[in-house]
């Protein structure tokens, strides 16, 4: 029997509601909306800002040990450029630019949806700082939506590292995000990460919370 879209949506909503009702331990997860930003290696940082340069912390991020730096750069692609792109610290072994799909259209660069660090075959970008510029080859991605959590959180949610789950939002533009990767580490703090495109589509902000479901929809 053919099911129309409205009936399918109702069936999915009922399944999720039943799942959450029998899993009362499922708690809310804070949302972290990620604007475009760049992680820099020590080598690239020194080219852009000068020899032996150290990043200056602007504010702490939710993930322990990570911070938004005062430093910003300009990024340029074949079609356009974007200024005031925030540098995140501390420095990493490898530079990586994370943008939204909307940004990629503005810049004219390739930006596959990837997990952090999965850079092979990704996009190229020119980065301009106050002291110099670097051309980053295969360093541009759109970050795949994901949840950071501790091992204790993972136990409470009955999920494991690398598992894909569904995330359910609330509000006027209720949305189900599928294919959300779970990242588990004692170094993490519980947080659901999406980029600005995804957040805007679901009317989400960093003040909101979401729920997860392990149902296969």
Quick summary:
Its cofactor is Zn(2+). The protein has 217 residues and is of the alpha/beta class. The protein has five helices and 14 strands.
Helix content: 10-25%
| Main sheet overview | 6 strands, mixed, barrel
What is the C-alpha radius of gyration, as a whole number of Å?
19 Å
Strand order across the biggest sheet?
Answer: 1-13-10-12-11-14
Cα end-to-end separation: 19 Å
As a percent range, the share of strand residues is: 35-45%
Judging from the principal axes of the Cα atoms, what is the shape? globular
Secondary-structure element string: HEEHEEEEHEEEEHEEEHE
In round numbers, the mean pLDDT is: 91
Q: Could you name the ranges where pLDDT drops below 50 across 5 or more consecutive residues?
A: none
Number of beta-strand segments? 14
Count of distinct structural domains: 2
Number of helices: 5
Counting helices, strands and paired strands, the structural category is: alpha/beta
Polypeptide structure, described:
This protein is α/β, with parallel strands linked by helices. The chain has 2 domains: 25-32 and 145-213, Beta Barrel (Barwin-like endoglucanases); 35-143, no CATH class. Helices cover 21% and strands 40% of the residues. The protein contains 5 helices and 14 strands. The protein has helices at residues 5-21, 42-49, 101-107, 151-157, 196-202; strands at residues 29-34, 37-41, 57-60, 67-76, 81-92, 96-98, 113-114, 123-128, 133-143, 146-149, 164-168, 176-184, 191-195, 209-213. The strands form 2 sheets. It has a 6-stranded mixed β-barrel. β3 and β4 form a beta hairpin. The mean pLDDT is 91.
């Amino acid at each position: 029997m053919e099911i129309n879209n409205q009936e399918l949506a109702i069936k999915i909503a009922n399944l999720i509601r039943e799942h959450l009702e029998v899993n009362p331990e499922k708690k809310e997860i804070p949302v972290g909306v990620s604007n475009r930003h760049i992680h820099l290696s020590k080598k690239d940082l020194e080219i852009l800002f000068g020899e032996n340069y150290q990043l200056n912390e602007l504010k702490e991020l939710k993930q322990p040990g990570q911070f938004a730096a005062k430093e910003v750069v300009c990024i340029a692609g074949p079609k356009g450029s974007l200024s005031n792109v925030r540098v995140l610290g501390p420095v990493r072994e490898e530079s990586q630019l994370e943008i939204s799909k909307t940004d990629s259209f503005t810049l004219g660069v390739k930006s596959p949806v990837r997990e952090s660090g999965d850079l092979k075959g990704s996009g190229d970008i020119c980065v301009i700082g106050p002291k110099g510029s670097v051309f980053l080859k295969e360093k541009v991605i759109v970050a795949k939506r994901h949840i950071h959590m501790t091992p204790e959180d993972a136990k409470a949610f009955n999920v494991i590292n690398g598992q894909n789950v569904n995330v359910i939002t609330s509000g006027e533009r209720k949305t189900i995000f599928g294919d959300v990767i779970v990242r588990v580490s004692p170094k993490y703090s519980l947080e659901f990460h999406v980029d600005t495109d995804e957040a805007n589509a679901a009317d989400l902000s960093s003040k909101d919370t979401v729920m997860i479901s392990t149902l296969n929809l």
